Amino acid sequence: MLWTRGELKSKAKDVLRMTYWPSLLVSLLILITSGGNGSSGGSNSGWRESGGSSLPTGWLMIIILIVIGIAIVALAIVLLVGCALEVGGRRYYLDASETKKRQILAY
After folding, report:
1. pLDDT, position 56
2. Are 25 and 93 in contact, with CB atoms under 8 Å apart?
3. From CA 3, how far away is CA 52, in angstroms rounded?
4. Cβ atoms of residues 8 and 64 within 8 Å
5. Could you tell me the CA-to-CA distances from 1 to 32, 54, 97, 100 in Å, in that order?
6. Measured between alpha carbons, how far is 83 from 91 in angstroms, rounded to an integer?
């Protein structure tokens, strides 16, 4: 089969019209659950250590443990939920692409 450029463009536009909003929602869901791919890091390059600490050592340890606990929970959520949603999202895109192509090519 030979296609013209205009036919390919019109079919691509039809597929995009049918799958735009569901694809956008899937992308936003993956973005939210995966943490935006690398946005969990921080930088303290402008921080200078002063001679003394304003927080007592006990409070500092509690804060450090809370931060570590939150990081572990966030990592567990990303690994257990985020990865599964990303795989499901990619499968959705593949299935939507193939299904819509078959429906458009059928007419």
Report:
1. 67
2. no
3. 74
4. no
5. 42, 75, 20, 19
6. 12
Q: What is the dihedral sign for C-alpha 61, 64, 66, 72?
A: negative
pLDDT, one tens digit per residue, over 21-45 is: 887 888 787 777 766 654 444 444 4
CA 80 – CA 83 distance, rounded (Å): 6
Distance CA 23, CA 92 (A): 8
Burial, 26: exposed, middle or buried (Cβ in 10 Å; 0-12, 13-18, 19+)? buried
Q: Residue 37 carries which DSSP code?
A: T
Q: What is the pLDDT of residues 42-61, one digit of tens each?
A: 444 444 455 555 656 777 78
- pTM equals 0.38
